[in-house]
Specification:
The protein is an alpha+beta fold and 227 residues long. Helices cover 29% and strands 24% of the residues. The chain has one domain (39-223).
Length: 227
Amino acid sequence: MLIKQIRTISILQILLLLTMLMAPMAMACGSGDSGGTDGVVIGGTDDFPKRIRTIESLTIFTEDDMKSVGWKGQRDFVLEYPGASLAKWGFMNQKEVGVLIYANAEDAQTLGVTAADAQTFRREGDGQAPDGDLIDRISCRDKAGASAVKTNTGVTSKSFSASYLDPEIGESDDIQAVGGKCSNRYPTYNDYTVIGNLVLMCESDGRNLTDPSTNCAKIEEWLTASE
């Protein structure tokens, strides 16, 4: 009888010890999935990484919501974006941000992700945009990384480096390549964030077009600050 009691106590002690050891591990594993912006997926390639965030939200965001956090919309995109009620580029914190708005989160996570993947796609090898009219916003860069584009402001600036792919617009006085043909064509957007029914495609913070974007990283915090 005594031996049986000792065995029972020993088993209980072992179970208690295992429970205590497993609890911190479970907390550590769970913490990476919470908090929305912590769940960053690294896409692209080793040479040209991009940060992709998918944030669950029941809020139906509008263009006014983006304007309220400082986004200044400029023009509609040239290409078609099926399912999007808004497809527009603009500026936020002196960096370009493309915005796609859908009727619901499901459309944003399917149609929107397909669109964002296409607009941030870089071909293997040189990381440039694919040939043809497949990417809406193109940054022309020389080998030193400086901007080679004049925008509709008429001022050359690293912060305003994107050019429409539309030939009629590209050859006009409104937006034109400085010094002629754009020989080094890179996607303007690299990181993208999906939050609820909203898709943000972001220009990088730094000179390197694949540097992280604060706009894409912080948009959840900014949009939900008043909730």
